[in-house]
Amino acid sequence: MILDLFAGPGGWSHALTVLGAQDVGLESDEWACKTRAAAGHTTIRTDVAQYPTWPFTGKTTGLIASPPCQAWSMAGKRLGLIDQPLVHQAVADLANGLDTRSKLLASCRDERSLLAAEPMRYLHALHAAGQPEWVAMEEVPDVLPLWRQYAQILRTWGFSVWTGIMNAADYGVPQTRRRAILLASRIRETAPSEPTHAQVAMHDTLFGPSRARWVSMAEALGWGATDRPVPTVCAGGGGGGPEPFPSGSRKALTTSRDRGTWRPHHTGSTAPMSHERSSWMLRSNSQANATVRRADEPAGTLFFGHRVNECVWVPDSAAPPASDPGGERKPDAIRITATEAGILQSFPATYPWQSTKSRQFEQIGNAVPPLLAAQLLASHLGTRVRQSDFGLAA
């Protein structure tokens, strides 16, 4: 089996499904488990820190882990950085079969910090059975020193290991989400897949293959694309063509009769608008230093939780004013929908998020982008990722 620790709503799981595999996810959050169930992912609802390791020994091919990031994230108090020496100690102890978690936890400023050491408890137990064959782990960038400690230990156990920071936008996700990654394998040399995208499109050279331009929010949401059917975002649609606003497209504003909210909508016009840019921007929160990106760019890192209602679409002040065909004014801000947020995280528009809106946003913000996950897992599974399987141009 493939064991997925802290499985969340299914970022890794959806990636595996697309690649023709599946995992067994361990997750404690009730609504994340219900989302996983609705999506068809196998789940054990449990506390990863309390669940025994013996059911998996001798049976596990791959181990995936994305420990909760709240203790380390820039969106929180970052007490994990203060607790980091304790986490390093826990990893070292667990690698030697010593369980000092209770003692160390009593000294932690944030009880969630020590969860980043939990994968080592499972790895130590599996190593005794000569498993797993491979490992993939993901966290916020500040956890990279911890992943390097894991790497040193895994190398002594016969693994080839790579650690580093990866930008999800470089792999086709419409979001510049940077994450610390660890990849390890017992059976092959380990390295991440070559990036498929770049901020500026690149042609084939002696130094590497071509790379497409970063996928914009507009392209991912289907705003302005003309080479395939484009459902409106209000109807929960996704998809989009290879460029956000190719020649032969035009945008207007329309209202959703269902919700009464505004959304850019493709009009089907053949008027050339190749130099037009989006008239909408996404603001990540209400703070002064919030990331603000135009819709013809990738989103910044999406995080929600207590800021669930602060991620909003706002008019681009540099763009010409626009109104709907009836002459009504464009509103000052529109809250992002769960469907839109999921698409920007590279989930399909139809992904069955469960619970209240706030809980759905929390699940989305905590999830691994499935497209990035697929790129990380492809070499372990001996397969390749097709962008089109995630609603993007091949």
TrEMBL record:
GO terms for molecular function: DNA (cytosine-5-)-methyltransferase activity. Coiled coil: none annotated. The active site is at C69. It holds the Pfam family DNA_methylase. It comes from the Bacteria. Its EC number is 2.1.1.37. GO terms for biological process: methylation. Keywords: Methyltransferase, Restriction system, S-adenosyl-L-methionine, Transferase. Residues 237-278 are annotated as: Disordered. Belongs to the class I-like SAM-binding methyltransferase superfamily. C5-methyltransferase family. This is DNA (cytosine-5-)-methyltransferase.
